[in-house]
Amino acid sequence: MWITWFKRIKLALIVLLLLAMFAYIVTFVISNNSMADINFIFLQLTQVPVELVVIASFVVGALAGLLAASLLLYKASRKNKRLQRQYTQHIG
Q1: Quick check: 49 and 37 in contact, CB under 8 A?
Q2: Could you tell me the pTM of the whole model?
Q3: What is the largest CA-CA distance in the chain?
Q4: What is the rounded CA–CA span in Å between residue 47 and residue 50?
Q5: How far is CA 31 from CA 4, 24, 49, 51, 71, in A?
Q6: d(CA 86, CA 92)
Q7: Tell me: the pLDDT tens digits for 32-56?
């Protein structure tokens, strides 16, 4: 019973954090309408709107985080299957 309440509170806190981040980004985008120069090693962009840079950075970071998390979950899943096979061989 306590576990389900804890999960609900945890989910609510995560949703509130994401909403706060979204509101902060929207406020920044609305209040800041200047241009920026982007210089990568292989690509140079001039006079790009700052809001586009912020939103693109947020999206790229989120995608990188999802990729890293999925790789960790895949690795854990493979280890779990290996351990289950070893356990069944040991028991049976």
Answers
A1: no
A2: 0.63
A3: 68
A4: 9
A5: 40, 11, 12, 9, 37
A6: 10
A7: 888 988 888 888 988 988 888 888 8
